[in-house]
Amino acid sequence: MDKIIGMGNALVDVLVKIDDDSLLGKLHLPKGSMQLIQEATLSEIRKYTSGMKIHRSTGGSAGNTVCALAALGANPGFIGKVGQDETGAFFGDTLRQCGVNALLATCDLPSGIASTFISTDGERTFGTYLGAAATLRAEDLSRKMFAGYNYLYIEGYLLQDHDLMLRAVQLAKEEGLQVCLDMASYNVVEAERDFFDQLIVKYVDIVFANESEALAYTGKAPHEALEEIASKCSIAVVKTGKEGSLVKKGTEVIQLLSCPVDNVLDTTGAGDFYAAGFMYGLTCSYSLEKCVQISTILATAVIQEVGTTLPAKKWDEIKLNIESLLQV
Question: What residue stretch is flagged as signal peptide (predicted)?
């Protein structure tokens, strides 16, 4: 099996369900977006959510993906940065307990926290205090970090640091890795479109985008966006929510509809788990269609739970579903 190393913001998710979206307005967080916040806003969030039931788990887009890969037995790695505090210790310990090789630099800032608000329709909105995670720099990376891996999976939230991104993909390419990029959020794509394009054309082999991110990047509807993105890389994936997903590699195009889900509790991590399923399929050399089907199994599972830490029983069910799929 091929091996994957992820790189992203090392964040701990603090999830809370909200009865209506008025709190998002008070915090100036557009529903469905990821907004970077400062310590003052984090303190305000803590004040508003005091007394509410919260759920804490390792987070960050790439962190979610590698943890899901580890649960499937893929032995992934993760590069990130945390503070020398309880939150950072929780993040690192949880990764290692999951079976992830955690390559974590540290600094004196507090560790990053993603305050995640889950609306009644399952949509999630992030107020992200990056803290130590934002201090990961190009000079923290070395070529030996990428040795022994076949794929580098990067979350688009890191694109604001151009030097970091360029060094990561260049070191990965020097070690012979394929580079996978998840576009992360439509507002990040809008802000960094030119740099996204530069990276994809020159370095990226696999691109993951949802419908809104693909629109922000290409200005086109999903099918046309898929064609444009696929013309610039080896494999393009456009996820269309309840409508399923579209994948193109060369002349091969796969369209898979989503399975109806009645009890959507939280869409946090749906895209991250989709990517984990797809990458797991690639590491096992499964067909493109099987990769998409495994992606759908994982994404469907995680939206029926609060947060991205699934119980062992759920993972057993996922593995059985994958086994059944492979026998068809």
Answer: none
Q: What pLDDT sits at residue 57? A: 86
- Summarize pLDDT for 148-207 with one digit per residue, the tens: 999 999 999 898 899 999 999 999 999 999 999 999 888 889 999 999 999 999 999 999
d(CA 318, CA 301): 8
Residue 8 one-letter amino acid:
G
Tokens of 139: 């000079």
Closest C-alpha to 318, from 3, 123, 73? 73
Q: Residue 277: pLDDT above 70?
A: yes
CB-based contact 182:68 (threshold 8 Å): no
- Residue numbers of the domain that contains 213: 4-10+61-105+133-326
CA distance 12 to 200: 28
Residue 260 maps to a domain: yes
Predicted confidence at residue 266, as pLDDT, reads 61
Would you give the DSSP letter of residue 292? H
Q: Can you give the pLDDT at residue 34?
A: 78
Token readout for 302 is 């995680």
Please state the φ and ψ torsions of residue 181, each to the nearest 5 degrees. -125, 125
How do beta strands 11-17 and 34-36 pair?
unpaired
Q: Does residue 39 lie in a domain region?
A: no
Counting the structural domains of the chain, the total is: 1
Residue type, 142: S
* Inside any domain, residue 124: no
Phi (first) and psi of residue 83, to 5 degrees:
-85, 170
Q: How far apart are the first and last CA of the chain?
A: 21
Partners of 127 in the β-ladder:
35, 115
CATH number for 167: 3.40.1190.20
Its pTM stands at 0.89
Q: Which two tokens stand for residue 236?
A: 């393009």
pLDDT of residue 56: 87
